[in-house]
Amino acid sequence: MKSVAKLRIGCSAVLALWLAGCSSLPSDGPSAMAISSEKVETSLPIDSYLIVQLDEPVVRTVGPWRPHTFADRFAIRSGPRGQPLGIGDTLDIRILEAGDNGLFANTQTRGTQFQVQIDETGNIFVPYVGRMRAAGRSSEALRQAIQDALADKAIQPQVMLGVTGNQANAAVVVGDVAKPGKYPLNVGGTRLLDMVALAGGSRFTTYETTVTLKRKAESASILLEDLVLVPNNNVYLVPDDEILLTFAPQTYTILGSVARPSEIKFETKTVTLAEAVARGGGLNTLAADASGIFVFRFEEPHLVKAIRPDWQPKGPGKIPVVYRLNLLEPKGLFLARQMWLRDKDIVYVATAPAVEFAKFLDIVGKTTAVVRGGTGVARDIQVLNKN
Asked: What span is annotated as the signal peptide, if there is one (predicted)?
């Protein structure tokens, strides 16, 4: 009877240990069941996160999506035509006359030609006219004003005007470009990629270069690659725009039951979920739950609305979303090829429930051995006391 009582005490101790420590078994991270639990979902410190099962409609919506940041923030309907002249601009002015005995014409030449720069007051000086306001006018308006001012002084004057040094209507390009500097904008409009090309282009690959555009008080950043893939991002520039190109490699993190958990750089323009798992060494065949492949991401609100029309936002900003892929289904491999990763995504491979149970049995076995060992020591002490 005493042995039975001791066995019961030992089993009770093991059960108590399990109940107290089952939530702290050694693990690579949360299980698939824990991530998908509604109770866990609503208890997060952030407002909420969505769990979305990857299927064909979802992958078609979020997989190949590219940001339209510049198109949304900086787009103008057409090129900035008729840009006004400004302080520092250099003008080339040519005045022609119909007669040989005019102010500027003689038997050798029909007129005169000279260059002038708009001074700090915004004016220029024209012979026989005097100082004229130039800053703020279009080149055509200034040309017509000079011609009208000479109408009663010269013989049927004709004025031609060109802008040779456009300092007021220019943008600045700095950072990781071959030739940083200030470059003038064309009268017909200059797009962002045109300006990057004038500066010699980026010194790094397009998918490792971030372009930041600052216009007055507003600024935004986007990959140089997305200026090519999304033509609407290649916006027209306006005077005083500032462009910064920086080297910023994209990375993702892979965790859980994989051979090599690590942070990994994008080495190509795009990385699919299948490629991401492969670069992490593949699934750990002794521990991984192939039905629990997760991608943690802060998603764009309009994409969340597209895949979950019933969802109601709880605040501004991006939405934390967890995409789940089941690789036990054959179509899961095709979906993994179509799901593109984005910068700072986290890929997590859950541990199979059987592995967690095996860990528990191992702990129970070790604990039972300790209890049995303790019972044997107590028996030896009792024998010594009797002797």
From this structure: 1-26
Q: Is residue 216 part of a domain?
A: yes
- CA distance to 19, 43, 356, 363, per residue, from 22 (Å): 6, 20, 10, 10
Sheet harboring 242-247: ordered strands across? 181-184, 170-175, 242-247, 209-215, 218-223
- Residue 73 shares a structural domain with residue 182: yes
CA gap 183, 318 in Å, rounded:
36
Helix (H, G, I), strand (E, B) or coil at 357: helix
Q: What is the CATH number of the domain that holds 97?
A: 3.30.1950.10
Do residues 84 and 135 make contact, with C-beta atoms less than 8 angstroms apart?
yes
For the chain, the domain total comes to 3
CA distances for 384 relative to 170, 373, 381, angstroms: 99, 17, 5
Highest mean pLDDT among 10-14, 99-103, 306-310: 306-310
Same domain, 124 and 182: no
**Are 217 and 325 in a shared domain?**
no
pLDDT of residue 335 exceeding 50, the answer is yes
Burial class of residue 300 (count of CB atoms within 10 Å of its CB; 0-12, 13-18, 19+): middle
Give the structural domain span for 158: 90-165
Do 156 and 177 belong together in one domain? Answer: no
Copy the structure tokens of residue 314.
């709880």
CATH number at residue 349: 3.10.560.10
Same domain, 99 and 204: no
Tokens standing for residue 82: 């008729």
pLDDT in tens, 154-185: 888 999 998 888 878 889 999 999 999 999 88
Provide the CA 374 distance to its chain's centre, in angstroms.
60
> Would you give the distance in Å from CA 73 to the centre of its chain?
15
CA–CA distance from 275 to each of 195, 252, 271, 299, 326 (Å)? 35, 12, 6, 21, 16
Cβ(276)–Cβ(347) below 8 Å? yes
Encoded tokens for 269: 């323009």
Q: Which amino acid is at 88?
A: G
- Do 349 and 292 lie in one domain? The reply is yes
Residue 54, CA distances (Å) to 67, 164, 292 in order: 20, 58, 11
- Whether 374 maps to a domain, the answer reads no
What's the distance, CA 166 to chain centroid?
A: 33
174 shares its domain with 74: yes
